[in-house]
Fold:
Amino acid sequence: MSALHEQGWLARFEDAGALLMAVRELRGRGYTQLEAYTPYPVEGLAQALGPMRNRIPLLVLLGGLAGGFGTLFLQWYASVIDYPINVGGRPNASWPAVIPAALEMTILFAALFGIVGMFFANGLPRLNHPLFDVPCFDAASRDGFFLWLRADDPCFDVALAHDDLARLAPLAIDRVGP
Structure:
């Protein structure tokens, strides 16, 4: 994770409506790296924040393919190249015999790749986050409505971003990160 991903401005808003209006305003100005923190789900906030890139389905697909084809190759190599045995006159590369194991390994590898990918996508394991150092951020789980404008946004400029947030009349604006 880059150092810019852990910096930016955190604005606290009075209620969910003000937060939703602020997100829409900033998205209209071209900001894309916005994160919102609320004590309860806010209708329309996910759509206002915009789509998030999700690579987990691709990882699950790649994991399933690697597990399935890897198992098929391993069983083919073992029965045809390494240790061919004539059992009841069947061919060495008899595909009905290898399908159950390949199916199981496809499911196992897909699940493992999905879980590992989810951990990396969520930035875990992580014991501390720079937002935890901001005073009053603990209110995000009780009654606070926060908007984090990250510094890795292409439109981010320290002074301009602060001014853009200040125009939205938040209760407070705090700097995140060093």
Remarks:
- The longest strand covers residues 8-13.
- Strands lie at 8-13, 34-37, 145-150, 172-176.
